Amino acid sequence: MLLVDYIDRGARAAPTDPCLVDPDGTTVLTHKEFRDLTHRIAGALRRDGVRPGDRIGVLSRNHPLALACIVGILRAGAIWTAINVVSGSADQADFLTTVGCRRILHHPDLADRAAELEKLVDGLEPSQPFDADDWLVPTGPRVPDRPFEPGGVAMLLPTGGTTGRSKAVPITHRQIHLMCLGFQIHLREPEPPRYLCATPMTHAAGLVCFPTLAQGGRVVVHDGVVPEQVLGSIERNRISAIFLPPTALYKLLADPKVRRYDYSSLRQFLIAGAPLAPDRLAEAVEVFGPVMTQTFGQAEAPLICTVHETTEIAQAAADPVLGRRLASCGRPSALARIEIMDDDGNLLGPGESGEIVVRSDLVFDGYWQDPDATAQTRRPGGWYGTGDVGLRDEDGFVYIVDRKKDMIITGGFNVFPSEVESFLHTFPGIDDCAVIGLPDPKWGEAVTAVIETRPGHTIDPDELIAACKAHLGSVKAPKRVITRALPRSGIGKVLKRALRDEYWTTADRRI
Protein backbone atom coordinates (compact mmCIF):
# COMPACT_ATOMS: atom_id res chain seq x y z
CA MET A 1 0.00 0.00 0.00
CA LEU A 2 0.97 3.61 -0.57
CA LEU A 3 0.77 6.14 2.25
CA VAL A 4 -2.07 7.87 0.39
CA ASP A 5 -4.02 4.59 0.53
CA TYR A 6 -3.84 4.73 4.32
CA ILE A 7 -4.94 8.38 4.26
CA ASP A 8 -7.92 7.53 2.05
CA ARG A 9 -8.86 4.59 4.27
CA GLY A 10 -8.89 6.84 7.35
CA ALA A 11 -11.05 9.41 5.58
CA ARG A 12 -13.60 6.74 4.67
CA ALA A 13 -13.64 5.13 8.12
CA ALA A 14 -13.82 8.30 10.24
CA PRO A 15 -14.37 11.32 7.96
CA THR A 16 -15.31 13.79 10.71
CA ASP A 17 -12.76 12.67 13.32
CA PRO A 18 -9.89 15.10 14.04
CA CYS A 19 -6.77 14.50 11.96
CA LEU A 20 -4.52 17.51 12.59
CA VAL A 21 -4.89 19.43 15.84
CA ASP A 22 -3.35 22.59 17.30
CA PRO A 23 -1.71 22.44 20.75
CA ASP A 24 -4.73 24.18 22.31
CA GLY A 25 -6.94 21.32 21.13
CA THR A 26 -8.50 23.09 18.14
CA THR A 27 -9.12 20.78 15.19
CA VAL A 28 -7.37 22.17 12.12
CA LEU A 29 -8.48 19.44 9.71
CA THR A 30 -10.66 16.35 9.94
CA HIS A 31 -9.58 13.18 8.15
CA LYS A 32 -11.84 13.96 5.20
CA GLU A 33 -10.66 17.58 5.05
CA PHE A 34 -7.05 16.44 5.21
CA ARG A 35 -7.57 13.96 2.36
CA ASP A 36 -9.34 16.58 0.25
CA LEU A 37 -6.59 19.15 0.89
CA THR A 38 -3.90 16.71 -0.22
CA HIS A 39 -5.85 16.18 -3.46
CA ARG A 40 -5.98 19.96 -4.00
CA ILE A 41 -2.23 20.27 -3.44
CA ALA A 42 -1.49 17.32 -5.74
CA GLY A 43 -3.79 18.76 -8.40
CA ALA A 44 -2.06 22.14 -8.22
CA LEU A 45 1.36 20.54 -8.58
CA ARG A 46 0.29 18.50 -11.60
CA ARG A 47 -1.40 21.53 -13.16
CA ASP A 48 1.92 23.38 -12.80
CA GLY A 49 3.73 20.66 -14.71
CA VAL A 50 5.20 18.62 -11.87
CA ARG A 51 5.95 15.14 -13.14
CA PRO A 52 6.35 11.81 -11.31
CA GLY A 53 9.80 11.67 -9.76
CA ASP A 54 10.30 15.45 -9.54
CA ARG A 55 11.81 16.55 -6.23
CA ILE A 56 9.63 19.05 -4.37
CA GLY A 57 10.77 20.60 -1.09
CA VAL A 58 8.75 21.85 1.87
CA LEU A 59 10.33 24.74 3.78
CA SER A 60 8.51 25.14 7.06
CA ARG A 61 8.72 24.73 10.77
CA ASN A 62 6.27 22.19 12.20
CA HIS A 63 2.85 23.17 10.88
CA PRO A 64 -0.31 21.20 9.99
CA LEU A 65 -0.26 22.45 6.40
CA ALA A 66 3.34 21.31 6.01
CA LEU A 67 2.23 17.74 6.70
CA ALA A 68 -0.58 18.15 4.16
CA CYS A 69 1.98 19.34 1.60
CA ILE A 70 4.13 16.25 2.18
CA VAL A 71 1.22 13.91 1.49
CA GLY A 72 0.06 16.07 -1.43
CA ILE A 73 3.50 15.81 -3.01
CA LEU A 74 3.39 12.01 -2.73
CA ARG A 75 -0.14 11.94 -4.15
CA ALA A 76 1.10 13.89 -7.16
CA GLY A 77 3.70 11.18 -7.76
CA ALA A 78 6.58 13.50 -6.88
CA ILE A 79 9.29 13.01 -4.25
CA TRP A 80 9.17 15.00 -1.02
CA THR A 81 12.53 16.62 -0.33
CA ALA A 82 12.94 17.32 3.38
CA ILE A 83 14.57 20.68 4.15
CA ASN A 84 16.04 21.13 7.62
CA VAL A 85 14.55 24.50 8.48
CA VAL A 86 17.14 25.38 11.14
CA SER A 87 20.10 24.85 8.80
CA GLY A 88 21.80 27.79 7.15
CA SER A 89 20.92 28.74 3.60
CA ALA A 90 24.25 27.42 2.28
CA ASP A 91 23.63 23.94 3.73
CA GLN A 92 20.03 23.95 2.52
CA ALA A 93 21.11 25.00 -0.97
CA ASP A 94 23.80 22.32 -1.05
CA PHE A 95 21.25 19.62 -0.20
CA LEU A 96 18.70 20.91 -2.72
CA THR A 97 21.37 21.04 -5.42
CA THR A 98 22.47 17.48 -4.60
CA VAL A 99 18.97 16.09 -5.14
CA GLY A 100 18.04 18.38 -8.06
CA CYS A 101 15.05 19.95 -6.33
CA ARG A 102 12.59 21.51 -8.78
CA ARG A 103 10.38 23.60 -6.52
CA ILE A 104 9.71 24.60 -2.91
CA LEU A 105 6.42 24.97 -1.06
CA HIS A 106 7.06 27.28 1.88
CA HIS A 107 5.51 28.71 5.01
CA PRO A 108 4.66 32.39 4.45
CA ASP A 109 7.02 33.42 7.26
CA LEU A 110 9.92 31.89 5.32
CA ALA A 111 9.36 33.68 2.02
CA ASP A 112 12.69 35.51 2.27
CA ARG A 113 14.62 32.29 2.81
CA ALA A 114 12.78 30.65 -0.09
CA ALA A 115 13.70 33.59 -2.34
CA GLU A 116 17.33 33.30 -1.23
CA LEU A 117 17.37 29.60 -2.10
CA GLU A 118 15.98 30.37 -5.56
CA LYS A 119 19.14 32.41 -6.19
CA LEU A 120 21.48 29.77 -4.76
CA VAL A 121 20.09 26.62 -6.41
CA ASP A 122 20.34 26.28 -10.18
CA GLY A 123 17.09 25.28 -11.83
CA LEU A 124 14.91 25.93 -8.78
CA GLU A 125 11.57 27.32 -9.92
CA PRO A 126 9.79 30.17 -8.09
CA SER A 127 8.61 28.95 -4.70
CA GLN A 128 4.99 28.80 -3.62
CA PRO A 129 3.53 29.77 -0.21
CA PHE A 130 1.51 26.78 0.87
CA ASP A 131 -1.28 28.79 2.51
CA ALA A 132 -2.35 30.49 -0.75
CA ASP A 133 -5.86 29.17 -1.39
CA ASP A 134 -5.94 30.62 -4.90
CA TRP A 135 -3.00 28.39 -5.86
CA LEU A 136 -4.83 25.19 -4.94
CA VAL A 137 -7.18 23.52 -7.37
CA PRO A 138 -10.86 23.67 -6.35
CA THR A 139 -12.25 21.16 -3.88
CA GLY A 140 -13.88 18.22 -5.58
CA PRO A 141 -11.75 16.77 -8.40
CA ARG A 142 -9.67 13.80 -7.36
CA VAL A 143 -6.14 13.30 -8.61
CA PRO A 144 -5.95 9.95 -10.43
CA ASP A 145 -3.87 7.35 -8.64
CA ARG A 146 -0.36 6.95 -9.97
CA PRO A 147 0.81 3.47 -10.95
CA PHE A 148 1.67 1.40 -7.89
CA GLU A 149 5.45 1.34 -7.54
CA PRO A 150 6.35 0.01 -4.08
CA GLY A 151 10.06 0.34 -4.77
CA GLY A 152 9.72 3.91 -6.03
CA VAL A 153 11.27 6.74 -4.05
CA ALA A 154 8.75 8.63 -1.93
CA MET A 155 11.01 11.04 -0.06
CA LEU A 156 14.59 12.20 0.33
CA LEU A 157 15.79 12.78 3.88
CA PRO A 158 19.05 14.43 4.94
CA THR A 159 21.33 12.43 7.17
CA GLY A 160 21.86 13.90 10.61
CA GLY A 161 24.90 15.85 9.49
CA THR A 162 26.64 15.16 12.82
CA THR A 163 29.74 13.94 10.97
CA GLY A 164 29.88 16.55 8.23
CA ARG A 165 27.95 17.27 5.05
CA SER A 166 24.45 15.75 4.90
CA LYS A 167 23.81 13.01 2.38
CA ALA A 168 20.41 12.34 0.78
CA VAL A 169 18.70 9.14 1.87
CA PRO A 170 15.89 7.87 -0.41
CA ILE A 171 12.90 6.37 1.42
CA THR A 172 10.64 4.21 -0.74
CA HIS A 173 6.90 3.66 -0.53
CA ARG A 174 7.66 0.09 0.55
CA GLN A 175 9.71 1.34 3.52
CA ILE A 176 6.89 3.64 4.62
CA HIS A 177 4.45 0.74 4.36
CA LEU A 178 6.77 -1.44 6.45
CA MET A 179 7.13 1.28 9.10
CA CYS A 180 3.34 1.48 9.34
CA LEU A 181 3.16 -2.30 9.69
CA GLY A 182 5.93 -2.27 12.29
CA PHE A 183 4.01 0.18 14.44
CA GLN A 184 0.87 -1.92 14.17
CA ILE A 185 2.83 -5.03 15.20
CA HIS A 186 4.86 -3.60 18.07
CA LEU A 187 3.29 -0.29 19.11
CA ARG A 188 -0.38 -0.67 18.30
CA GLU A 189 -2.83 1.04 20.63
CA PRO A 190 -6.39 -0.14 21.39
CA GLU A 191 -7.81 3.15 20.09
CA PRO A 192 -6.64 5.41 17.24
CA PRO A 193 -3.49 7.11 18.58
CA ARG A 194 -3.21 10.74 19.57
CA TYR A 195 0.36 11.61 18.65
CA LEU A 196 2.18 14.74 19.79
CA CYS A 197 4.72 15.84 17.16
CA ALA A 198 7.13 18.43 18.59
CA THR A 199 10.54 17.78 17.03
CA PRO A 200 11.06 18.53 13.32
CA MET A 201 8.85 16.72 10.82
CA THR A 202 11.88 16.50 8.53
CA HIS A 203 13.30 13.81 10.80
CA ALA A 204 12.02 10.81 12.75
CA ALA A 205 9.15 12.71 14.38
CA GLY A 206 7.67 13.26 10.93
CA LEU A 207 7.98 9.58 10.05
CA VAL A 208 5.95 8.69 13.16
CA CYS A 209 3.10 10.82 11.76
CA PHE A 210 2.59 8.29 8.97
CA PRO A 211 1.70 5.20 11.06
CA THR A 212 -0.44 7.50 13.23
CA LEU A 213 -2.49 8.61 10.23
CA ALA A 214 -2.51 5.04 8.89
CA GLN A 215 -4.33 3.97 12.06
CA GLY A 216 -6.89 6.77 11.79
CA GLY A 217 -5.27 8.73 14.59
CA ARG A 218 -4.69 12.42 15.12
CA VAL A 219 -1.47 14.45 15.14
CA VAL A 220 -1.16 17.34 17.58
CA VAL A 221 1.44 19.62 16.01
CA HIS A 222 3.86 21.60 18.21
CA ASP A 223 6.60 23.86 16.91
CA GLY A 224 9.44 22.79 19.17
CA VAL A 225 9.92 21.24 22.60
CA VAL A 226 8.97 23.82 25.22
CA PRO A 227 8.55 21.68 28.36
CA GLU A 228 5.58 23.49 29.87
CA GLN A 229 3.73 23.49 26.54
CA VAL A 230 4.46 19.84 25.73
CA LEU A 231 3.63 18.57 29.22
CA GLY A 232 0.44 20.64 29.33
CA SER A 233 -0.57 19.37 25.90
CA ILE A 234 -0.21 15.74 26.98
CA GLU A 235 -2.74 16.40 29.73
CA ARG A 236 -5.07 18.71 27.78
CA ASN A 237 -5.20 16.70 24.54
CA ARG A 238 -5.11 13.27 26.20
CA ILE A 239 -2.02 12.37 24.20
CA SER A 240 -1.41 8.63 23.86
CA ALA A 241 1.89 8.69 21.94
CA ILE A 242 4.88 11.00 21.76
CA PHE A 243 8.30 10.69 20.15
CA LEU A 244 11.37 12.54 21.43
CA PRO A 245 15.14 12.15 21.20
CA PRO A 246 16.92 11.73 24.56
CA THR A 247 18.02 15.37 24.78
CA ALA A 248 14.40 16.54 24.58
CA LEU A 249 13.35 13.99 27.22
CA TYR A 250 16.05 15.39 29.50
CA LYS A 251 14.55 18.87 29.06
CA LEU A 252 11.15 17.59 30.19
CA LEU A 253 12.60 15.79 33.20
CA ALA A 254 14.52 18.91 34.23
CA ASP A 255 11.36 21.04 34.31
CA PRO A 256 10.44 21.74 37.96
CA LYS A 257 6.74 21.19 37.20
CA VAL A 258 7.15 17.85 35.41
CA ARG A 259 5.39 15.88 38.17
CA ARG A 260 2.33 18.12 38.31
CA TYR A 261 0.62 16.96 35.10
CA ASP A 262 -1.71 14.07 34.33
CA TYR A 263 -0.05 11.50 32.04
CA SER A 264 -2.65 8.76 32.42
CA SER A 265 -3.54 8.91 28.70
CA LEU A 266 -0.01 7.97 27.58
CA ARG A 267 0.48 4.53 26.07
CA GLN A 268 3.75 4.97 24.16
CA PHE A 269 6.52 7.43 25.06
CA LEU A 270 8.92 6.59 22.26
CA ILE A 271 12.61 7.48 22.57
CA ALA A 272 15.06 7.11 19.67
CA GLY A 273 17.81 8.97 17.88
CA ALA A 274 20.73 8.58 20.31
CA PRO A 275 21.83 6.44 23.27
CA LEU A 276 19.75 7.09 26.38
CA ALA A 277 21.27 7.35 29.86
CA PRO A 278 19.85 4.42 31.91
CA ASP A 279 19.32 6.53 35.04
CA ARG A 280 17.30 9.06 33.04
CA LEU A 281 15.20 6.26 31.54
CA ALA A 282 14.44 4.93 35.03
CA GLU A 283 13.48 8.45 36.10
CA ALA A 284 11.19 8.74 33.06
CA VAL A 285 9.38 5.53 34.05
CA GLU A 286 8.89 6.96 37.53
CA VAL A 287 7.51 10.25 36.15
CA PHE A 288 5.46 9.17 33.13
CA GLY A 289 4.59 5.61 34.11
CA PRO A 290 5.22 2.22 32.46
CA VAL A 291 4.91 3.70 28.96
CA MET A 292 8.52 4.22 27.90
CA THR A 293 9.51 2.57 24.61
CA GLN A 294 12.82 2.69 22.80
CA THR A 295 13.63 1.84 19.20
CA PHE A 296 16.77 1.87 17.09
CA GLY A 297 17.02 2.93 13.49
CA GLN A 298 18.75 5.37 11.19
CA ALA A 299 17.68 7.34 8.15
CA GLU A 300 19.25 4.52 6.15
CA ALA A 301 17.22 1.89 8.04
CA PRO A 302 14.42 3.91 9.54
CA LEU A 303 12.96 3.93 12.99
CA ILE A 304 12.03 0.39 13.97
CA CYS A 305 14.92 -2.05 13.52
CA THR A 306 14.80 -2.85 17.24
CA VAL A 307 12.06 -2.35 19.82
CA HIS A 308 12.35 -2.18 23.60
CA GLU A 309 8.76 -2.75 24.69
CA THR A 310 7.05 -0.76 27.45
CA THR A 311 6.65 -3.84 29.64
CA GLU A 312 10.33 -4.76 29.26
CA ILE A 313 11.53 -1.29 30.22
CA ALA A 314 9.13 -1.12 33.17
CA GLN A 315 10.37 -4.50 34.42
CA ALA A 316 14.00 -3.42 34.06
CA ALA A 317 13.30 -0.22 36.01
CA ALA A 318 11.62 -2.16 38.83
CA ASP A 319 13.95 -5.18 39.09
CA PRO A 320 17.64 -4.61 39.95
CA VAL A 321 18.50 -7.96 38.37
CA LEU A 322 17.18 -6.70 35.02
CA GLY A 323 18.35 -3.11 35.49
CA ARG A 324 21.22 -3.48 33.04
CA ARG A 325 18.63 -3.73 30.25
CA LEU A 326 17.85 -0.04 30.70
CA ALA A 327 20.98 0.51 28.60
CA SER A 328 19.55 -1.59 25.74
CA CYS A 329 17.69 -0.37 22.66
CA GLY A 330 15.68 -3.58 22.70
CA ARG A 331 15.52 -6.71 20.58
CA PRO A 332 15.23 -7.00 16.79
CA SER A 333 11.80 -6.04 15.52
CA ALA A 334 9.68 -8.34 13.38
CA LEU A 335 10.99 -6.43 10.36
CA ALA A 336 14.75 -6.77 10.82
CA ARG A 337 17.59 -9.12 11.61
CA ILE A 338 20.31 -7.58 13.76
CA GLU A 339 23.79 -9.03 14.23
CA ILE A 340 27.18 -7.95 15.56
CA MET A 341 30.09 -8.12 13.08
CA ASP A 342 33.84 -7.83 13.51
CA ASP A 343 36.17 -5.96 11.17
CA ASP A 344 36.76 -9.14 9.12
CA GLY A 345 33.06 -9.67 8.38
CA ASN A 346 32.51 -12.44 10.94
CA LEU A 347 29.29 -12.52 12.95
CA LEU A 348 29.95 -12.48 16.69
CA GLY A 349 28.27 -14.20 19.60
CA PRO A 350 26.58 -12.86 22.75
CA GLY A 351 28.69 -10.47 24.78
CA GLU A 352 31.16 -9.79 21.97
CA SER A 353 31.55 -6.20 20.81
CA GLY A 354 31.55 -5.18 17.14
CA GLU A 355 29.63 -3.20 14.56
CA ILE A 356 25.84 -3.42 14.62
CA VAL A 357 24.70 -4.65 11.19
CA VAL A 358 21.16 -4.90 9.80
CA ARG A 359 19.49 -6.99 7.12
CA SER A 360 15.93 -5.91 6.34
CA ASP A 361 13.63 -4.51 3.68
CA LEU A 362 13.77 -1.35 5.80
CA VAL A 363 17.37 -0.80 4.68
CA PHE A 364 17.82 1.77 1.94
CA ASP A 365 19.16 0.96 -1.52
CA GLY A 366 21.84 3.63 -1.37
CA TYR A 367 22.49 7.34 -1.02
CA TRP A 368 21.10 9.56 -3.76
CA GLN A 369 23.64 9.57 -6.61
CA ASP A 370 26.53 8.78 -4.24
CA PRO A 371 27.79 5.23 -4.94
CA ASP A 372 31.07 5.76 -3.07
CA ALA A 373 29.31 6.69 0.18
CA THR A 374 26.87 3.81 -0.35
CA ALA A 375 29.72 1.32 -0.78
CA GLN A 376 31.12 2.33 2.61
CA THR A 377 27.93 1.07 4.30
CA ARG A 378 27.94 -2.38 2.67
CA ARG A 379 29.22 -5.39 4.59
CA PRO A 380 29.79 -9.02 3.50
CA GLY A 381 26.65 -11.12 3.22
CA GLY A 382 24.34 -8.28 2.23
CA TRP A 383 24.47 -6.54 5.60
CA TYR A 384 24.14 -2.81 6.16
CA GLY A 385 26.83 -1.44 8.47
CA THR A 386 25.37 1.12 10.86
CA GLY A 387 28.68 2.55 12.07
CA ASP A 388 27.53 1.88 15.64
CA VAL A 389 29.57 -0.32 17.95
CA GLY A 390 27.43 -2.61 20.07
CA LEU A 391 26.83 -6.03 21.50
CA ARG A 392 23.99 -8.46 22.14
CA ASP A 393 23.31 -10.36 25.36
CA GLU A 394 22.19 -13.96 25.85
CA ASP A 395 18.53 -12.92 25.70
CA GLY A 396 18.89 -11.06 22.40
CA PHE A 397 18.86 -7.51 23.76
CA VAL A 398 21.03 -5.15 21.72
CA TYR A 399 23.25 -2.56 23.38
CA ILE A 400 24.74 0.42 21.54
CA VAL A 401 28.21 1.06 22.90
CA ASP A 402 28.99 4.11 20.78
CA ARG A 403 29.62 5.44 17.30
CA LYS A 404 32.82 4.05 15.80
CA LYS A 405 33.93 7.55 14.87
CA ASP A 406 33.45 8.83 18.44
CA MET A 407 35.87 6.38 20.06
CA ILE A 408 38.72 8.08 21.95
CA ILE A 409 42.24 6.63 21.84
CA THR A 410 44.04 7.85 24.96
CA GLY A 411 47.45 6.53 25.96
CA GLY A 412 46.89 3.50 23.75
CA PHE A 413 43.54 2.61 25.34
CA ASN A 414 40.13 2.77 23.66
CA VAL A 415 37.46 4.75 25.51
CA PHE A 416 33.84 4.91 24.36
CA PRO A 417 32.32 8.28 25.32
CA SER A 418 28.83 6.90 25.97
CA GLU A 419 30.02 4.96 29.03
CA VAL A 420 31.45 8.12 30.58
CA GLU A 421 28.39 10.14 29.57
CA SER A 422 26.05 7.64 31.22
CA PHE A 423 27.88 8.10 34.52
CA LEU A 424 27.90 11.89 34.20
CA HIS A 425 24.13 11.82 33.73
CA THR A 426 23.78 10.44 37.26
CA PHE A 427 24.84 13.83 38.67
CA PRO A 428 21.70 15.87 39.45
CA GLY A 429 23.35 19.16 38.49
CA ILE A 430 24.25 18.05 34.95
CA ASP A 431 21.56 18.73 32.37
CA ASP A 432 23.42 17.24 29.39
CA CYS A 433 26.96 16.38 28.42
CA ALA A 434 29.30 15.23 25.68
CA VAL A 435 32.59 13.42 26.12
CA ILE A 436 35.20 13.96 23.41
CA GLY A 437 38.90 13.43 22.86
CA LEU A 438 41.00 16.58 22.67
CA PRO A 439 44.64 16.85 21.53
CA ASP A 440 47.13 16.23 24.31
CA PRO A 441 50.94 15.93 24.09
CA LYS A 442 51.06 13.16 26.70
CA TRP A 443 47.95 11.09 25.99
CA GLY A 444 47.47 11.78 22.28
CA GLU A 445 43.82 12.40 23.09
CA ALA A 446 42.66 13.50 26.52
CA VAL A 447 39.20 12.41 27.65
CA THR A 448 37.28 15.66 28.08
CA ALA A 449 33.79 16.19 29.52
CA VAL A 450 31.81 19.12 28.16
CA ILE A 451 28.79 19.71 30.39
CA GLU A 452 25.66 21.83 30.52
CA THR A 453 24.46 22.46 34.06
CA ARG A 454 20.88 22.75 35.25
CA PRO A 455 19.69 26.19 36.38
CA GLY A 456 20.90 27.00 39.88
CA HIS A 457 23.56 24.28 39.93
CA THR A 458 27.34 24.47 39.77
CA ILE A 459 29.73 21.59 39.26
CA ASP A 460 33.19 21.40 40.82
CA PRO A 461 35.46 19.97 38.09
CA ASP A 462 37.91 18.36 40.53
CA GLU A 463 35.12 16.62 42.43
CA LEU A 464 33.58 15.41 39.18
CA ILE A 465 36.89 14.03 37.91
CA ALA A 466 37.53 12.30 41.26
CA ALA A 467 34.09 10.68 41.18
CA CYS A 468 34.71 9.46 37.63
CA LYS A 469 38.07 7.97 38.62
CA ALA A 470 36.46 6.12 41.51
CA HIS A 471 33.66 4.73 39.35
CA LEU A 472 35.26 4.33 35.91
CA GLY A 473 38.99 4.17 36.58
CA SER A 474 41.70 6.66 35.69
CA VAL A 475 41.84 5.80 31.97
CA LYS A 476 38.17 6.58 31.30
CA ALA A 477 37.89 9.48 33.74
CA PRO A 478 37.97 12.95 32.14
CA LYS A 479 41.26 14.81 32.34
CA ARG A 480 39.37 18.07 31.92
CA VAL A 481 35.84 19.41 32.47
CA ILE A 482 34.44 22.28 30.39
CA THR A 483 31.14 23.98 31.24
CA ARG A 484 29.50 25.54 28.19
CA ALA A 485 26.54 25.29 25.81
CA LEU A 486 26.67 22.27 23.51
CA PRO A 487 26.24 22.74 19.75
CA ARG A 488 23.15 20.92 18.49
CA SER A 489 21.48 19.88 15.26
CA GLY A 490 17.93 20.84 14.36
CA ILE A 491 16.56 17.81 16.22
CA GLY A 492 18.62 18.42 19.34
CA LYS A 493 21.47 15.98 18.71
CA VAL A 494 24.79 17.13 20.11
CA LEU A 495 27.17 17.89 17.24
CA LYS A 496 30.32 16.25 18.54
CA ARG A 497 32.23 16.90 15.33
CA ALA A 498 31.55 20.63 15.59
CA LEU A 499 32.60 20.51 19.23
CA ARG A 500 35.83 18.68 18.44
CA ASP A 501 36.61 20.93 15.48
CA GLU A 502 36.82 23.94 17.79
CA TYR A 503 39.75 22.34 19.58
CA TRP A 504 41.41 20.34 16.79
CA THR A 505 41.97 23.22 14.36
CA THR A 506 45.71 23.29 15.07
CA ALA A 507 46.21 19.56 15.62
CA ASP A 508 47.62 17.11 13.08
CA ARG A 509 45.00 14.40 13.56
CA ARG A 510 41.22 14.30 13.21
CA ILE A 511 39.15 11.74 15.08
UniProtKB/TrEMBL annotation:
Domain AMP-dependent synthetase/ligase residue range list: 9-368
AMP-binding enzyme C-terminal domain ranges (all copies): 419-493
UniProt GO MF annotations: ligase activity, forming carbon-sulfur bonds
UniProtKB keywords: Ligase
Domain of life: Bacteria
Pfam assignment, any one: AMP-binding_C
Name of the protein in question: O-succinylbenzoate--CoA ligase
Native organism: Pseudonocardia halophobica
Lineage: Bacteria, Bacillati, Actinomycetota, Actinomycetes, Pseudonocardiales
